[in-house]
Amino acid sequence: MTDVSPPGTLAAITEALATVQAHLDQVTRTNGRIEACQREILRRLDAVEAGQVSLATLTAHTHAALLGNGTALPVDLADDPLLEKYLLGQPADRTSTSRALVEWRRAAIAASAAELANILEHQYDPSPTDTAEARLLRYQLAAITREELRGRGVTPPSPPTSTRAEDRSPEMIARRSAELARLWRAGESTGLFGDPELGGAIDLFEAAERRGHGVPEGQLAAELRDLHRALGDRLAAGERPSAAEELVVRHGSHQLEVSPEQTR
Predict the structure, then answer these.
(1) Overall pTM surpassing 0.90 (yes/no)
(2) What share of the chain is helix, strand, coil (3-state, %, to 5)?
């Protein structure tokens, strides 16, 4: 015998099922929001933990500096955007033995005030190809330039709020790379030593000059020309040679090697 439910009963069952489905959908959405909140809480906890580590590191370096044992901050900490405005206005470092700072102090003294003012504008310009290391060097070079201008009675322009490039498009990167390559290929100049992104190339080239002592003069000159040309090509291609790399220059049957330790 077939049991046929009245239409009203089927409608009630259908409505009940729809209600249950709606509740299930609501539970699913609620669970999704809970999971999203949990992920956000974990993200914020990770950020707080990282901030605590950075703050502890910064505190330790500050304490050491007060005791006369100042050391450079780790690059990842010093490059924090929150510290940038302070680093942009830092005083000139007149005691560092870093190759880049020593040579820029010497070059700045020999340059005219007009030339220094022009270079300072470029040192303030954001670069789409810079790195954290290049930015930190940029702040230091600009500090020396400012002090040199003040010493001549010239009021330098105030530092910008940031030198971080917002536009890092391929077009801007290619333009900046071509600019650096032209500056490098033009040879030794005040602008060459005042650009932080050329620091690594200069380190490598000067290390190769030192490593070449004892090599016949004509042969060394040819090798250095090859190296200078190769570094210019790398800059134009968007590379930024670094003092941390190992360099091998081949010219004819001779091979000139430069290890990272020799660039420091």
Answers:
(1) no
(2) 65, 5, 30
